[in-house]
Design goal:
About 35% of the residues lie in helices and about 20% in strands. With about 450 residues, the chain is an alpha+beta fold. The chain binds flavin-adenine dinucleotide.
Length: about 450
């Protein structure tokens, strides 16, 4: 965000300080809210849209993430299990289509988001790892006639793209891009303003008086609106009606100093993202100023979903784990300097997929739970939410995610210790395997609990 604001601070959007009227009020200025505003203003140019954001647009997860604008092909087994073969495939295809659509959108709107559609490399960095390069996803893609979506590579081919000596297997996903997410968020903000969307930053919404019209109450003003869109990401965990929709975990990123020569040395000269296949996977991408940004390897857990707790923004142990990951994957980078670290909240649903739900009396539409994969899914989400606001039934509103939560998360005080235990088991299990030791049955059993729960939903065809 620092880099994006230095490049373009944008026009000011002062806080709401009056009672105003709007056709649609969007609460939350992350990707989900901004894409919805853009989509609505494109489909209904005369619509009066107000967007309220407690921080600045992109100040939540959207300006802090890994920048992987990815398709969901690696999760096709899960999606088809949850929604059935035809609907799971339809959802994966719709998400995947957004990768090229976002590139077009950035070009058309002159948003320089450092968007590069050069694919993603999934690696197994050790025999114990699964992930993108595991057997399941590529097999299911091939069986469903989508073999080109995930191409298996030999170790030599993968190492010629980025020379990590850890690689034991790899797959390449062409439908994937990387971007500088804060630049994208600020570009969306600019485009929304240009289309006449009224944006009020530093405006925290306290509640919504439901009715027709609804009244969206902020500290210093209110918006009376016919329709409301609720896209407040992880913050929804403390809102009535959503307390059991997901758990909030914390992910961290670190970024190196510019290292053009070292990048050449490891042969990673393209703008392709890389992810390994450990349980708490590492994901890394180059930046346009020749740094490498990496996240993952460890994670924090926010009690009762408090998206602003220090566990989410200031846990040095977790950002250190990300930094360690870069040198573990590429020992050639030993001694590289890291200049920045930051963390952010992830709204992780038990099914690992987002959900859309319309609340009574039928004019408040929520889009939440992007589960750490929101870049492409929020773009699609903008189409779903815009369709719900406009009351249309189309190829987007009929997608299977537009049917509320697949399953609820356990309530506090059970949720926090349960997720903490699973995170401990996964993280320490990965560490054991890294040095050639078995993770043991206790870690396996505790660590696999969330996936086993999801598998039960998958088998039920939830
Ligand atoms: C470190 C990290 C790495 C990640 N890496 C990736 C990745 O590489 N690829 C990927 O696809 N996804 C990634 N994600 C997830 C991705 O960032 C999210 O899925 C996506 O940004 C969700 O967008 P959103 O609009 O739902 O939420 P947010 O961006 O969090 O937006 C919600 C907004 O609502 C605002 N808000 C909250 N409460 C209120 C209120 N009461 N009133 C007004 N406004 C309010 C918040 O300030 C925030 O700006 C990552 C996340 C993190 C934290």
């Amino acid at each position: 965000m620092q880099e994006a604001l230095a490049a373009d601070i944008g026009e000011p959007c002062p806080p709401l300080d009056a009672k105003v009227g709007a056709d649609v009020c969007i609460v939350g200025g992350g990707f989900a809210g901004l894409w919805t505003a853009i989509e609505l203003s494109a489909r209904e140019p005369g619509l009066r849209i107000a967007l309220l954001e407690r921080d600045i647009c992109g100040g939540g997860a959207s300006g802090r993430n890994g920048g992987f604008f990815s398709s969901s092909w690696w999760d096709l087994p899960g999606l088809t299990g949850l929604f059935g073969e035809a609907e799971g495939l339809r959802y994966a295809t719709a998400v995947s289509d957004e990768v090229a659509a976002a590139e077009r959108w950035c070009l058309d709107h002159e948003v320089d988001a450092w968007y590069h559609r050069e694919g993603a490399l999934g690696i197994r960095a050790g025999a114990w790892q699964e992930g993108i390069a595991g057997e399941g996803p590529a097999d299911v893609c091939a069986r469903m006639g989508e073999a080109a979506r995930m191409r298996r590579l030999t170790v030599e081919e993968a190492r010629s793209m980025a020379d990590s000596p850890r690689i034991t297997a790899a797959a390449f996903v062409p439908d994937a891009a990387i971007c500088q997410p804060a630049r994208l968020a600020r570009g969306l903000r600019r485009a929304a303003l240009e289309r006449g969307v009224r944006i009020f930053e530093r405006t925290a919404v306290r509640g919504i008086d439901r009715g027709r019209p609804a009244v969206v109450r902020a500290e210093t003003g209110a918006v009376r609106a016919d329709q409301v869109v609720l896209t407040i990401g992880s913050w929804a965990a403390s809102w009535p009606g959503f307390r059991r929709s997901f758990g909030v975990i914390a992910d961290y990123m670190v970024v190196t100093e510019p290292i053009p020569e070292l990048r050449r040395e490891i042969g990673w000269t393209s703008n392709m993202g890389i992810a390994d296949g450990r349980d708490l996977l590492y994901y890394l991408r180059p930046t346009d100023d020749d740094r490498i940004a990496i996240g993952g390897g460890a994670t924090g857990v926010a009690f009762a979903g408090r998206a602003e707790s220090r566990a989410v923004t200031h846990d040095r142990r977790i950002s250190d784990a990300a930094a360690r990951g870069l040198v573990w994957l590429f020992p050639q980078l030993e001694g590289v300097r890291f200049t920045h670290a930051w963390g952010g909240p992830i709204d992780m649903t038990p099914s690992f997929v987002p959900f859309y739900r319309t609340l009574p009396p039928g004019n408040v539409h929520a889009g939440l739970g992007f589960s750490g994969h929101g870049l492409s899914q929020t773009k699609l989400g903008g189409r779903i939410l815009a369709g719900s606001v406009l009351g249309v039934e189309d190829e987007y509103t009929s997608l299977p995610v537009n049917a509320g939560e697949v399953a609820k998360a356990p309530p506090e005080p059970l949720r926090w210790p349960a997720i903490r235990a699973a995170v401990w088991a996964l993280q320490s299990g990965d560490r054991q395997e890294e040095v050639g030791r078995s993770r043991g049955s206790l870690r396996s059993s505790i660590g696999s609990a969330p996936s086993r729960y999801r598998d039960r939903l998958v088998r039920r065809g939830a």
